[in-house]
Input
Amino acid sequence: MNAIVTLSAHNPAFLPLVLLAVMIALGAIFGRLCEWIHIPSLTGFFLSGIVVGVYLLLTNQEGTYDSIKAVGSISLSIIMFELGTRLHFRKISHNLSEVLLIVLSQAVFTVGLVTLAFLLLGAPWEIGLLIGVIAMATSPETIMVLSRSYRSKGHLTDAIMPHIGMDDMIGVIIFSIVLAIATSVNGHTVVSTEVMILEPLFEIVGSILVGGAIGGVLALFIRISGKDVARKHQFYLMETVCAIILITALTQFHLKIGDVEFILSPILMPMFMGIVFTNLTSKAIRKENDVALDAFTPPFIMLFFALIGIQLVISVIGLSGSIWFLVLAVLVYVVIRVVGKQIGVIVGSKLKKTPKEIVKYLVWSLLPQATVSIGMAQIVLLETDLPEDWRRILFVVVLIAAFIYQLVGPIVAEKTLIASREIEPGKLNFFSYEHEGKPKEEPRLPRF
Output
């Protein structure tokens, strides 16, 4: 009797679940290979998504991406929550004015120069301004990985996270305002000035209030859970993941107050949840919660970058126009963004008389860009009121630039932390044992 085994995939969840499993497996393999040749593992995660994206294109199943992109939204919330937890008021209050001045100086020069460059390339003013604002954003996860993996300590390490947090916070607020104006100007219906003003205002204030409220409730529950010492990590993880998923769900709703329709920011809301949470809990609880969350988040971070790889493949194929123009646009963005940030740091630091070692290394530490910028670019891509070709160009430019920055940025950030003597070069050898005379044990690997 012959037995024939057949696979039936009538369940619509079958292919999305298989693709998630494949991306995690490929991401782990590619990430490890990248580390082996001294390239950041995040690059391997991108590559896993590119492989899956090519498969979806070849099999005409690009629509499957829509079934799994919610995982990317959860991952973005996790990253922004963790960024918020690094912004403890007691730690940043002593140099808050310095951070704000340097960040605002960066904003003026980065947004101004990148916007001008894209206007010269022929972009509509609203697209040029949006991509200029996106250029402000800095990737928090790269620095968090380096700082945690090598336990860096010092003035530069203490300065980096507040700069990244303020950079992204101010960038998202400006982005919300510019996007509301751009969509109103390009919309098919006439929008009043009142609505143009209230829409970004409701989004920003609502995101801060709701995110802060959930962060406060999370801090309360975690304080209560900490009394059960035996199972506190379980409770910490369950409560934090619950809050993150709730935050992600709330960002998917379109809210309406009177004539004003808006959404809560997928970047600001989890960030403020983290800020309020970290400032309402003790240092010991924060560390314990980090330990609990660190055991859960790596697959989500991996999938976030893999999903970006899929989007890159799908968006590039859908582009019309010259490939050389796209290459030029990417080069302009990559170079001008660095120039704008460098000038901004120098000008801002001169006004506040910042220590020379901070000025020397800060801009290179702020080079990586991925999560926040890609989150903004995704929002622009979905705004049907904006010109379709330029929406796609903006999205692809930001994605390719993020790939370049993730390839170069972590390496440069490592070198700056070594040069500033805040991590020891010996700790960077991931695949060697400890120094002679000490017990041989496996070194700590980077978290992602």
Remarks:
- The two ends are 50 Å apart (CA to CA).
- Residues 136 and 171 are 6 Å apart (CA to CA).
- Residues 193-225 form the longest helix (33 residues).
- The domain at 74-301+324-423 is CATH 1.20.1530.20 (Na+/H+ antiporter like fold).
